[in-house]
Amino acid sequence: MIKLVDMSKFYHTGSVTLAALNKVNLKIKNGEMLAIIGPSGSGKSTLMNMIGCLDVPSEGQYLLDEREVSRLKEDELSEIRNKKIGFIFQSFNLLPKLTALENVELPLIYRGLSAAERRQSAVEALNMVGLSDRMHHKPSELSGGQQQRVAIARALAGNPPIILADEPTGNLDSRSGVEVMEIIKDLNNKGKTIILITHDMEIARQARRIIRIQDGRIVSDEEVA
Q: Is the pTM for the entire model greater than 0.85?
């Protein structure tokens, strides 16, 4: 599903060039659940941005479903993000004035769905994460764990094959974190490709494969026993 070939990302500050990623090679199969782990500044967030089509590499290739996407225009990348990738962020990124249902519906507007279709998809996604009784509540009326479940529902509503989760339990208490990880693992069991970005080894061990990144390079790639 995903193939990165000699992918590099450079940032230039005056006369200094920083390699956030340095000739990364990676293959991810359809239906995998893997964790990308590394310390702050290791390049894992840059790698997530590349895989999620939020940024493009300076060098190398990115093939998604055998299509080279690293040189596409922004509107083409936006279409790929909208149809193929669901994002879950540590900070939830919910709009405070909208209800849970409205937050989940929002990205579906860009897919050209009718209002009725958007509503049905959003309701189904919220049911999947156990929030059928909270869908008309605003984020301020929900716990942290419930807000993250809304964010997961938003990622699911368009039925993308890939879920990118960036520190999905980072702002949660331990109980809510366990609940969120159970939902994510269940999604993988139902066929979603899950890519976790984390610095937490306990979270990483719940994946089936762990990629370690350091100084912009992949330093290990291990299957979890």
A: yes
